Amino acid sequence: MKVGARNRIIAKVTDIKKGGVMCLVKVNIPTSSGMASVMTLESLKELGIKKGDKVEVVVKAVNVLLMKK
Fold first, then answer.
1. For residues 65 and 11, what is the distance between their CA atoms, to the nearest angstrom?
2. Are residues 29 and 66 in contact, defined by beta-carbon separation less than 8 angstroms?
3. pLDDT along the chain (69 residues), means of 10
4. Domains (ranges, CATH) in the chain?
5. 5's torsion region: left (phi>0), alpha (psi -120 to 50) or beta?
6. What 3-state DSSP class applies to 17?
7. Are residues 64 and 37 in contact, defined by beta-carbon separation less than 8 angstroms?
8. 10: which strand partners?
9. Are 54 and 8 spatial neighbours (Cβ–Cβ below 8 Å)?
10. Which of 2, 8, 30, 66 has the fewest Cβ atoms within 10 angstroms?
11. How far apart are CA 29 and CA 35, in angstroms?
C-alpha cells in the first residue's frame, strides 16, 4: 500500500490489548523506546497482526499506523 508518510520504522509486536471495539498494539522499535498504536479490532483482524509479528510503523502527524511486513 502506498502512503504519503515518510517516517517508517521496522518493529516487533510485543503486546495486544483488546477492548470492545478498539485494541492497543504495542511494538518494540530499534531504540530503547517503545511505541503503540490504537486501531479497531476489525483492522487488527484484517491486517492479521499477532504478537511476535514484524510490522512497519508508519508515523505521520499525530497518527501511528502499523503495516504487516
1. 12
2. no
3. 68 94 90 81 93 85 75
4. 7-68 (2.40.50.100)
5. beta
6. strand
7. yes
8. 56
9. no
10. 2
11. 7
Q: Identify any residues that bridge with 55 across adjacent strands, giving them in sequence order.
A: 11, 68
- Residue carrying C-alpha cell 531504540: 31
The DSSP element (H or E) to which 35 belongs, if any, is strand 34-40
Cell of 1: 500500500
Read off the pTM: 0.59
- Buried b / exposed e along 8-47 (16+ C-beta atoms within 10 A): eeebebeebeeeeeebebbbeeeeeeebebebeeebbeeb
Give me the residue label for grid cell 477492548. 19
